[in-house]
């Protein structure tokens, strides 16, 4: 049991931050969020589609988890910014206990690849007898305004918030910051020392999301043995 003692972390003043994220390519964009310009249009279209599309909840998730005012309608790639908050992972993550969504963004593509490799390897290792698998991930470039933000770079990598296996201290910090209205947390990458990641408690500050390259991950039965950047045949000369 972790006692939620407040940490004296500094605030962070920064705008127009760039970052990267990888998602499984089997998950397409959610057209409902990308096809509307504002909250009023979204509510009208959602109600209409709900009458005729029984699979709407599966594709759009649960918009009720996220205040409509936090959805950055009208930006490029809106659905990619919103998805982690409407499709909340019940198992949680480093800074969430599973009761709310978080959008995680890495400072560099190399950091995103390292983080995904660790977590996907852990997932595949739990599947008994899995000798081979393949996964294609889509990379995304985010532009976002972090403020108001808190900077956990003030904590050393040895702090319990950065424990490589237990998320207890990190989740306690996440709950505290979310309750205080924090929009963004900057923190150290645990899987790639020296790198930086961002945890967004809301997609409100996201300005654009652009699709980039695709990456193929190969599982050899013990580890992810190969990661290839996929080059479209149309780009070859």
From TrEMBL:
This is RES domain-containing protein. InterPro entries: RES_dom. It holds the Pfam family RES. Residues 84-212 form the RES domain. It comes from Sodalis ligni.
């Amino acid at each position: 049991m972790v006692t939620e003692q407040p940490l004296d972390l500094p605030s962070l003043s920064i705008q127009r931050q760039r970052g990267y994220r990888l998602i499984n390519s089997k998950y397409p964009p959610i057209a409902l969020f990308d096809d509307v310009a504002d909250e009023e249009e979204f509510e009208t279209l959602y109600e209409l589609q709900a009458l005729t599309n029984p699979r709407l909840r599966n594709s759009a998730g649960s918009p009720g988890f996220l205040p409509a005012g936090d959805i950055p309608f009208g930006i490029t790639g809106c659905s990619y910014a919103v998805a982690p908050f409407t499709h909340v992972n019940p198992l949680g993550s480093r800074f969430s206990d599973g009761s709310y969504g978080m959008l995680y963004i890495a400072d560099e593509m190399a950091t995103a690849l390292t983080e995904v490799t660790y977590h996907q390897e852990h997932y595949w290792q739990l599947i008994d007898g899995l000798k081979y698998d393949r996964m294609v991930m889509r990379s995304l470039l985010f532009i976002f305004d972090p403020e108001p933000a808190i900077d956990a770079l003030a904590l050393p990598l040895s702090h319990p918030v950065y424990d490589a296996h237990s998320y207890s201290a990190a989740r306690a910090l996440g709950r505290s910051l979310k309750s205080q209205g924090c929009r963004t947390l900057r923190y150290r990458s645990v899987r790639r020392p020296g790198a930086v990641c961002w945890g967004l408690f809301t997609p409100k500050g996201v300005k654009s999301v652009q699709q980039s390259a695709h990456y193929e991950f190969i599982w050899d039965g013990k580890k992810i043995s190969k990661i290839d950047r996929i080059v479209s045949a149309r780009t070859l000369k």
